[in-house]
## 1
Amino acid sequence: MQSLIDNARKFAERAHDLRPLADGQHPDVLFITCSDSRVVPALITGGSPGDLFELRTAGNIVPEYNEGRGSGETATIEFAIEVLEVEHIIVCGHSHCGAVNAILYPGAPSALPAIHQWLADTEPHDETRKATSFLDGDALTSAVQRHVQVQLDRLQGHPSVAKRLERGRLSLHGWFYAVGTGTVSTLDPQDGHFRPL
Ligand SMILES: [Zn+2]
């Protein structure tokens, strides 16, 4: 923690470079990913301040759109589309994801009630679990990749997203980041497979 505080104290030394950011933000991308500390979007993409508008949730979950019930996630998506007019949305899952692991192997709800509630409210467990029923090898990787596809499908149910897609002014991308190697794979929508970016 102390090193983080020390760096924060020194950050103002970069004020000259940061000053233009006070005039506004014009990111091109909404980057939706997990809260996991090992996933650092700006580091992975080389993005600078102002390049990526981020939505981070446990398990990079996008809730179903619900007209009568607002949520922080829906508000973030709407702002990115309607106000910032981003032209790309990336949903990036990752290896070793604790949230997707919790979907596959749920423990006792009493130990982590908020996590269980979040996953129960937002995740079609059967869809994510399907990934493990037909693929050998790394079941969690398969589940995360299937999970990314589920979130991309969900996004299309958000009116702001659907409207921009219809007008051809928005592209959706599914990514998978391997924590231990730094490899990024992208979803090929034609066949549903992830391949190196
Ligand atoms: Zn995760």
## 2
Amino acid sequence: MLASAKARYTQLIKQKTYELGFQYCGISKADFLEEEAPRLENWLNANKHGQMHYMANHFDKRLDPRLLVEGAKSVVSMLLNYYPEKERASGEEDYKLSKYAYGTDYHFVIKDKLKTLIQYIQEEVGEVNGRAFVDSAPVMDKVWAKKSGLGWVGKNANLLNRQMGSFFFIAEVIIDLELEYDGPVKDYCGTCTRCIDACPTDAITEPYVVDGSKCISYFTIELKEQIPPEVTGKFENWIFGCDICQDVCPWNRFSQPHQEPQFNPASGLLEMTKKDWEEITAEVFNRLFKNSAVKRTKLEGLKRNIAFVKNGK
Ligand code: SF4
Ligand code: SF4
């Protein structure tokens, strides 16, 4: 392809992602992730994924986007801010939900945007084959975003962006169209260890390594069984997910409220009191979380979490 066409398509695609509401877009060549291969293997071998068996599936596909999209040439990564205007719980005593889960499930919101993006590319360029991914197991989203200059992976294992912090979703489109590629940025964690010091379950076992099976997000969302007694009293009132290692991160000083109406909390969610949570009914649960990622735990899961936090006091 002519260099000028490549530059034009790159520019058009990036521009479109901003129109769709994404804050940042970076692009990498779709290639085998050589550096990641041994790292992923060690992590899985050490059983750091707990019951998240999907992490171990699609091992080859996770390392090579060309196995996901035939003839793939480019991985387009995007960031979408979800930092809320107002936090649900500000008092120490309130029950807390991860900020990403306040509004409509991001999978739906982002998939729609990505579909529009692929359609747009096909209209502008012609026959382009592409697939959209948002937080789906076969794509190592942080690795691609980092390669494309959208940030660095911090000691809390989140992608961090100097302008935006880390309260954003990462999404990708893999396409068989050659584009201009971006380069990585450096790591700005420096000597900071705030996330490691603040994690109540010591899930950040060493800088940059999170033992997923010790993380409150895992216990409150992924784990299907009883929460193990050794973490009793350690959840600091988090009943769905945990934002502690992001809340303490100095790069999140720069977080600005999102502009995505679908991420606004369901009416009444911000006002739920401790008592309301403890007495939550199926009706209230269904109303608050009709289209929300919280549905993943189901009512029983959320009740289990609430009881666990309450009894640990
Ligand atoms: S999300 Fe919470 S429990 Fe998990 S690593 Fe961060 S601070 Fe620790
Ligand atoms: S809290 Fe500090 S060490 Fe942890 S991710 Fe943020 S900057 Fe890096």
